[in-house]
Amino acid sequence: MSPIVPAPRVEAVGYTLAMQYLIDASVYVFRAHFSMPDDMVDRDGNPVNAFYGFCRFLGDFIEQVRPDHIAVAFDESLSTSFRNDIYPEYKANREPAPPELKRQFLQCRRYARALGLLECGDALFEADDLIGTLVERGRSRGRPSTIVSRDKDLTQLLSPEDVFWDFAGKGKLTYDSIVDVFGVAPEQIADFLALAGDSVDNIPGVPGVGKKTASALLAHFGTLDAIYANLDRVHEVPVRGAKTLGVKLDTHRDAAMLARRLTGIATDAPLDAVDGALTPKRPDLGELNALFDEADVGMALRRQAERISDLYDH
């Protein structure tokens, strides 16, 4: 796994509590699954590459960042979220995780819990929504967030005090840098995806409206609602095909509004009494070693777990 650079403390005006780190865990499980050797197996021949890689990632993160507040959010299903009720084809283009990876997901969740971290998942709400809920709750209490993910959808949650941290790609992005990277401001990301579509999540958007056109429309009008309130002025936007763009948008209004219901991140997931749980607890070394025994991993992860446990003595 790539080395992790410790995150700086953020001293944000109006914020009085330490940064909270919210990890989009499934991204890093999949990354480990595809980047670690697939011949890493336990005594029964079960793959453990995703488990091992995720443990290295999360253990390194804890050692080097030493967060005061942290949560690790997992996706539980590709087909049972509230978005599937709205649009049954949501994420239907994705292949379900193979059984050997599902098994490792469960091991990764056990590892996060045994490490003393708040681990969460929900059948109806995706990891994005759990993170969105924690961001909103932290914000209401004066606590900024660092969202640890590679998923651009999560950038819509940023306020000027927050950070988006993509380990494997663009590094740390602030609120002000999102527009330079994605072409729109954080609060426009959901509208942008509703217009341009999101092939990763099987959201079609408006046919014929690509990323450049979506960015230009939002730069001119600000929001999706404002675009539809001013269809008679869409021809003013300096993009190719602007003369017929208003008709195209009007024809596919329902599709755009449906897509917008899918691209927005919920901030009201049922996470009860989590504030105190955001503070890491001493790792359960017995449970961790039992998990490592089950996976037949060597000493590196065990030594790391002991070092993390020692952090709580200082």
Q: From the coordinates shown, what is the CATH architecture of the largest domain? A: 3-Layer(aba) Sandwich
Count, helices: 13
Q: What overall geometry do the principal axes of the alpha carbons give?
A: elongated
Number of domains: 2
What would the average pLDDT be, to the nearest integer? 91
Q: Give the termini separation.
A: 27 Å
Structural class comes to alpha/beta
Largest beta sheet, briefly?
Answer: 6 strands, mixed
The level-1 CATH class of the largest domain:
Alpha Beta
Kindly report the spatial arrangement of strands forming the biggest sheet: 3-2-1-4-5-6
Mind explaining what this structure looks like?
By secondary structure, the protein is α/β, with parallel strands linked by helices. It folds into two domains: 20-182 and 266-311, 5'-nuclease (Rossmann fold); 186-263, 5' to 3' exonuclease, C-terminal subdomain (DNA polymerase, domain 1, Orthogonal Bundle). It contains 13 helices and six strands. It has a six-stranded mixed β-sheet with strand order 3-2-1-4-5-6, sandwiched between helices. A hairpin with a 4-residue loop joins strand 5 and strand 6. 40% of the residues are buried.
TL;DR of this structure?
By secondary structure, the protein is an alpha/beta fold. The chain folds into two domains: 20-182 and 266-311, Rossmann fold (3-Layer(aba) Sandwich), CATH 3.40.50.1010; 186-263, DNA polymerase, domain 1 (Orthogonal Bundle).
Write the layout of secondary structure elements.
Layout: E1 20-24, H1 25-35, H2 49-65, E2 69-75, H3 82-86, H4 99-114, E3 118-122, H5 127-140, E4 145-148, E5 163-166, E6 171-174, H6 178-182, H7 189-196, H8 211-221, H9 224-229, H10 242-251, H11 253-263, H12 285-295, H13 299-311
Parallel strand pairs: 1-2, 1-4, 2-3, 4-5
Antiparallel strand pairs: 5-6
